[in-house]
Structure formats: structure tokens, C-alpha cells
Amino acid sequence: MAKHRKPTLDRRQVAAEILKHRGDALVVPGLGAPTWDTAAAGDHALNFYTWGGMGGAAMIGLGLALAQPKRRVLVITGDGELLMGLGSLATLGVQQPRNLAVIVIDNEHYGETGMQQTHTRLGVDLAGIAKAAGFRASGTIYGGAQLKAWIPRFYRQPGPVFADIKVTTQSAPLVLPIREGPALKNRFREALLGAKAFE
Ligand SMILES: Cc1ncc(C[n+]2csc(CCOP(=O)(O)OP(=O)(O)O)c2C)c(N)n1
Ligand SMILES: [Mg+2]
Predict the structure, then answer these.
(1) Cα–Cα distance measured from residue 28 to residue 56, given in angstroms and rounded to the nearest whole number
(2) pLDDT reading at 2 higher than 80
């Protein structure tokens, strides 16, 4: 196992920096803090918030990416959330969606439930797993300059693209989006499909 490097990036700044460039991308935030981070960067009808659903964000992203091959899809999730659905990396490696990026806001803990350490704090290398699963690009991001260099890849590089972004355990004020699932789903479908959403 590689020696542990102390994370320094701020999760809210990371999310805001990434989402500044979102254009018409479809964004699937994982449950808990990545959802609050995404909402804090600006609520958007093309955010498909997953609220309490854990472990499925990357596979929801795959479904969207396959259904909407002309649109870019960003999954922005937590280390704990991805670890719960780790097999999704293998499926993405097999499916090779060219328009999908999976971005992990990795604070190395289950933050939302009381800051228990996750496997990433104990040396598990998510970017290494993604690379071995067949992602076209995969990396671990520790600093601001590195993040800047990666952001265009999230939106343009042929996927699947994977990035594990190491952030501090500093928590940020809650910014909660709409809570009601059907309202979120209908808003998302309408923004994506227009009138066809309700045919
Ligand atoms: C199936 C399931 N198990 C447990 C939970 C409780 N839970 C909610 S958020 C969370 C931790 C998420 O950790 P992570 O994805 O790393 O996000 P962080 O808060 O650290 O940014 C857990 C265990 C849940 N919502 N669903
Ligand atoms: Mg976490």
C-alpha cells in the first residue's frame, strides 16, 4: 500500500469548480454530502439527486449515458457510496460508455453517518480499480492545479473517465435540494426531453 497523503482540497470548492463548466451535462450526485455540494454549486433541473439511495449512482449514470449518447453524464459521488456499489466499475469497464465520467469526492470517510473511515483511508486505490476495470482515463487528484487539468477531461475526453478527488473531512453547511422523488424525476425528464417527457 502506498503511504497515506493528507488530503487538502475543499469539497465545496471542488464541486463548484467542476460544475461551473457543466453546460448541458446531466449530473447524478450520490447521496448525502455530494448531493449538498452539487446543490450548493447551484440547483439545476438536470441534476438527478439520489437522496438516501446508496450504491447506485454510477449505474444510474450508465443508464442515462446509454439512453442519451449525445449528452455528457457526470456522476459525482462519495467514496462510501461508490464502495457500496464497487461492481459498477466492472460493469462500466465492460460497457465503455464514451460520454460518462465518474467523479468521487473522496474524504476517506462515511461523513454523513459520523465520519467512520472507509477503505480509501486504509489504502484502497479506487482509481487503480477503475483503471484495471478498463476505464479509458483514471486518476487520483490531490491538488488544485491537477484538478484544473482534469476538468476538461470530465466533459470531453472519450469515457469512461474516472477521477478520485481527495478532499478534507471538513463538513460544509447543508444545502438541501427538493426532497420529493417524483417531483425531481419529472423536473429532470422535462428538462431533458421537453414535451416528450409526458407523452
Ligand atoms: C443502503 C444504505 N446504507 C447506509 C446508508 C446510510 N448512509 C447515508 S450517507 C452514508 C455515508 C456516505 O459516505 P460517502 O459516500 O463517502 O459520502 P460523504 O458523506 O463521506 O461525503 C451512509 C452510510 C444509506 N443511506 N443506505
Ligand atoms: Mg466519504
Answers:
(1) 10
(2) no
CATH architecture for segment(s) 11-198 = 3-Layer(aba) Sandwich (3.40)
Beta bridge partners of 162: 102, 138
Q: What are phi and psi of 176, to 5 degrees?
A: -95, 130
Tell me which residue has its CA closest to atom 1 in ligand 1: 54
User: If you measure from the C-alpha of residue 109 to the centroid of ligand 2, how many angstroms do you get, rounded to a whole number?
Assistant: 4
Q: What pLDDT, on the 0 to 100 scale, is given for residue 1?
A: 64
Residue 107 beta carbon below 6 angstroms from any ligand 1 atom: yes
Residue partners of 97: CB distance under 8 A and separation at least 6: 62, 65, 66, 73, 159, 160
Residue-wise pLDDT for 91-129, tens only, equals 999 999 999 999 999 999 999 999 999 999 999 999 999
CA of 78 from ligand 2 middle (Å) equals 5
Q: pLDDT (tens digit, 9 = 90+) per residue, 29-85?
A: 999 999 999 999 999 999 999 999 999 999 999 999 999 999 999 999 999 999 999
Residue 116 parent element (H or E): strand 116-117
- Separation between Cα atoms, residue 99 and residue 155, nearest integer Å: 8
Q: Given the DSSP bridges, would you call strands 26-29 and 161-166 parallel, antiparallel or unpaired?
A: unpaired
Beta bridge partners of residue 141, listed in sequence order: 165
